[in-house]
Every structure is written in structure tokens, then in C-alpha cells.
Amino acid sequence: MKRFLGFIKKEFYHIFRDKRSMFILFGMPIAQIMLFGFAITNEINNVNIAILDKSKDSETQKIINKISASKYFHIEETINSESQIQSIFEKGKVKAVVIFENHFSKNLQTSKQGKVQIITDATDPNIANTITNYTNAILLNYIQEVNKTNIPTYSIDTQTQLYYNPELKGVFTFVPGVMTVILMLVSAMMTSISITREKELGTMEVLLVSPLNPLQVILGKVFPYVFLSIINATVIVILGVFVFGMPIQGSLFLLAAESILFIITALSLGILISNIAQTQQTAMMMSLMGLMLPVIILSGFIFPISSMPLPLQIISNIIPAKWFIIIIKAIMLKGATIDIIWKETLILIGMTLFFILLSIKKYKIRLE
Amino acid sequence: MSQEKIIAVKNLSKKFGNFIAVNDISFDVYKGEIFGFLGANGAGKTTAMKMLIGISKPTSGEAVVADFDVNFQAEMVKKNIGYMSQKFSMYDDLTIKENITFFGGIYGLSRNQIKEKTAQLISDLGLENELNKLVGDLPLGWKQKLSFSVALLHEPKIVFLDEPTGGVDPITRRQFWEMIYAEAHKGTTIFVTTHYMDEAEYCDRVSIMVEGKIEALESPKNLKQQYKVTSMNEVFLKLARNVE
After folding, report:
1. For B171, which of A40, A338, B140, B206 is 20 to 30 Å away at the CA?
2. Cβ-based interface (< 8 Å): residues of B facing A
3. Which is nearest to B7 in space by CA: B23, B25, B30?
């Protein structure tokens, strides 16, 4: 045990004395969460739009007031004919035009249906989509208010209800996503690099000739990263909650336990990589290409899995990160307990055991 | 030099697939001697040594090192030997003191023992002012001497040196060999691989490996007489030619 502690102490010296490690460990999580939180977001704020009101009655004025009162939109211009639409889009002045049909108010009363057209500049499809959704939400809200006072009620032809994330806040998807990416990065990449580093320097040979057994060597290398990953996960959750208002509906204990499970999954992948790779560079490339890219692209962090082509959907099942994101989203947003996410948890445990067994099998320390 | 065997190798072989890296070698090393293990690159000396230090399993044959069988008691073998690899084997980003503490620790030395050893080692090497300097900032010659001292921290019966003087200047090599002599004088057995033939002259006995087999095992003086030449370099060339 004393030997083991000495080993861990040495490992911390390596980490704390290496500027790059320190940056990846502590700078990266904070930078990433701030970036995703403030810059890379699907939310819109003060988007410039134009209004084409052909009806110009009291009802359209109410809706326009509602739109301009929301913090999402800024009415940049009011235009008079459809011929102007093309030119204002081309100038890039506005992202969307909201058009009210002729006799909007009258149609609403007679046929119980008013028509509004939303034209968006879809060069940025995500923003266009969000604008449409937000405008719809405002219209819906208006119709509900009107219906309270009017009998018989006007018809509502769309009904949208957004559960768990009614404001469609990006923060709710990126906090679990960033946490997954960071845990993968720290646990898998950093450990595989730190193990291959010793191989490259020749110190691994010296350690293996020492009375330490190979298992102790590997555990000693891995332990500091378990510790640091837990700290990282905590920092991300705290930032998510206090800076971005991420809710945690479920139990913190379950969240911590699942996170530790995922850390172990990632570590076992890191060990597997360090068994195959002989140099730090190879280990880094393998971690980035083999782990980071799938985590970012196929885990459902950025691109929804349900809209991927079927082959990719099938492949996404073997990405541990996918299951972890499902688990922590369920805990944070829906307050899920273990009897809801036991299946995903079992899959993660199974994957971890598989990676560990594979590592043991591959565990031939080839020294040239 | 006593006749007490400290390494006894019998019919040791190592195969990698169809390739026979070490082919049925047998030899003994006696307590307190400086044993030179020579051979060209690829002759099998590193593979043979790895079996002796317990990190590679022999395909067949047996070897007893410091009274323990490498086939069955590799862990005990490891406790009783010291090892210095050809790549410089300490941590550059740790200070001299931290390196000594770490390596002492993994060999199970107590805190007091480590303290004592550190003080002694530092004064022997004249490194009093460098104790808290990073090892990476030291010149190569000092690193090598330090590395050798660290391999001896736990007072092993045998120390294995794998090409210890690669890349250092002749003066440092000379000093390094003085350290080796001093240690051998205390009764520690030195098992050293090298490809510097002039260094072979410093050994009590040398074995020369060619293509997996031991082709010669004698004192340098006898070998030179036997082959009627004046230097070990010529002995080596003659042997290699014979095999071809």
C-alpha cells in the first residue's frame, strides 16, 4: 500500500508539472462549457425580423406587439409588399419576415382561422428552425389568450407541447454533452498518453523489473485520473446549475454513481489504447479519432440520433457515450431513478467489463 | 572472486514464432564478478537478459537468478536484482530527491532507509547542491551515474546494466567503470551488456553471443590468447566471421 501511495504521488507530480496536462484537465472543461453556453448555442436573442401586415387591424397589431415585446425578436423593418422580401433578405438585414394575410381579423371571426406566413432565411437552418418555432409559440400563446375571452373558440390547428425543456434551452443538452466529452478526454486520452509516455521513455521497463506487479503499475497510473475526472464532473455540474440554470431533478447520488461508472468505462478504453499504442502520439491520435469524434458526432450530443441514417443509428449503439448521455439527461431533466435507467446502466457495465477483459487479454507489454 | 554461482542458466531458449532469438544457451555467473554479455545488435542478448530479470518467460530451459527460478519465482527474482536500462530510466520532471524517494519506495525501503540512502548517495556523487533540481536539467553523465546508484538503492545481489554507457563521453565512461569496480569490490555481481569492445576488457569474464548462441565464454585475456589477437575487437570480428 505504501508503495502504491508513493506511485500515485509521483503521478501527481507528472500532472502538476506539465502545463499541457494542467490545461487539458482544468482549462478545457471551463472553456468548453463557457463556449457551448454562450457562443455555440441554438437559442436566439434579438433576431432582426421584418413584418408585412396586409391586414393592419387590431388583432394583427396585438400579435405584432407580442412579437416585439419578446426578447427573441427585434422588428427591424415594416414592409409593404411581397416584392421587398427578396431585397431585404439579400441585404442580410433580417432573418425572417412575418406576413399577415388580408383581412386577418375578419377571417379569424368568420372562418375561425387566420393565416400567418413565416419566411425565414434558411442559410443557417438551425436558426431558421428556431425562429419558426419561437414565432409559432408566440402565435399559439396569443390564440390561447383570445380563446379565454371568446365563445365559441377559434380553432387551433397546431398543438405543440414541449416537455422537460419548454424553452428549448440549449443548455439542457450541452451540459450532459460537455460532461461526457470531458470525462472521455480526461479519462481515456490522458491515461493512455501517460502510460505510453512511460513506455516511450523506457521507465515502464524499469517499473516492470521492480517488485511492483503490472496490475499495481496500471492502477497507480489510472487512479489520479479517476480522482481528477470526478473533480471535473463536479465542476461541470456546478457551472451548469449555477451559471446556466440547469436543473437536477433526480438524485445527486445516482448522478455521481453513474458518472463514476462512465469514468471507469472511459479508463478501461484508455488502458486498452495504451496496450496497443507504443508512442504518445499514436495514443493521442487513437483517442481523438477513435473516441472523441464518435463521442461528439454519434452520441447524440450535437446531432440527434433519431435523424441519422439507419446504419449510423445502429453504430451509435456501440458508443458508450450515447448511453451515458441518455442516463444523465434522464436524471437531470426527468428526475429518473434507477428503475427507469437500469437498462442503459447495464449496457454501460457490460461494455466496461468487455473493455477490461479485452485489455487483460491484450496485456502483453511489448518492450521492443 | 568466489566460485559461488549467482546465476545458473541451463538450456535456455526463447522463440518468437519461427524465429529463435535465444537458442539453447547455458552459462554460470559467479558471485562478485563483472560479467560482460556481448553481442551485435540482434544477437539475442537483450532477449536473454529479459528472461533473467523476470519480464519475459523462457520458451524452454531454466535459469536460477539469486537463488530464485525465473520460471516460477519471477517476483522474488525482481526483488533481489537491480536494473538499469539502456534508455536513461529516471523521471526528468522529478527532482533528484523525488526520484530517489520514488524508486526507494517501490522497492519497499522505509522512510528512514530512504533518508539515509539519499544522504549517502548525494555525498558519494557530490550532488549536495543539486538535490532539489529536476533530473532533466542534469548533464547525461550525471544522470547515468545517478541511475546506477538508484538501481543499487535496495542493495541487490546482482545488478543488470543494459548498455549503460551509450552516448556518454570517454571520461564519464571511465568514471562510470570506476563506480562499477567499486560496487563489484563490495561483493555485488555486475551483469553488463555492451557493444563497446574496449569496455569488454574491463570485465572479469565475457560471453559473446552470435545469432542466439553463446560462441565464446572466457576471460578477455584468455580469449585474446586463444584467437592470437591483441584486442577484444579483433576477437569479436573473428567470431562473427566464423559463424558467417
Report:
1. B206
2. 46, 50, 53-55, 75, 78-79, 81, 83-94, 98, 101-103, 105-108
3. B30
Q: What is the C-alpha to C-alpha distance for residues A170 and A52, in angstroms, rounded to an integer?
A: 30
Q: Based on the domain organization, do A305 and A179 belong to the same domain?
A: yes
Give this prediction's pTM.
0.76
Backbone angles phi, psi at A248, to 5 degrees: -125, 100
- For residue B175, the distance in angstroms to the closest alpha carbon of chain A comes to 23
Task: Kindly tell me if the per-residue pLDDT of B1 is higher than 80.
Answer: no
pLDDT at A120: 82
**pLDDT tens-digit series, residues B124-146:** 888 888 889 999 898 888 888 89
Give the pLDDT band (50/70/90) at residue B98: very high
The count of other CB atoms within 10 Å of the CB of residue A90 is: 9
Q: Nearest CA to B189 among B34, B45, B73?
A: B34
Q: In terms of CA atoms, which chain A residue is nearest residue B53?
A: A209
Residues A306 and A212 both lie in one domain: yes
Looking at mean pLDDT, say which of A44-53, A180-189, A263-272, B140-149 comes out highest. A263-272
The reply to whether CATH 3.50.30.20 applies to domain B32-40+84-243 is no
Distance CA A79, CA A51 (A): 6
In this structure, are A95 and A23 located in the same domain? no
Read off the pLDDT of residues B28-60 as tens digits, 9 standing for 90 and up: 999 999 999 988 878 888 889 999 998 888 999
Nearby residues of A1 by Cβ (< 8 Å), 6 or more positions away: none
Q: Please give the residue range of the domain that contains residue A111.
A: 47-149
Going edge to edge, which strands form the sheet with B34-39? B81-84, B158-162, B189-194, B34-39, B205-210, B213-218
Whether B108 sits inside 8 A of A3 (CB atoms) is: yes
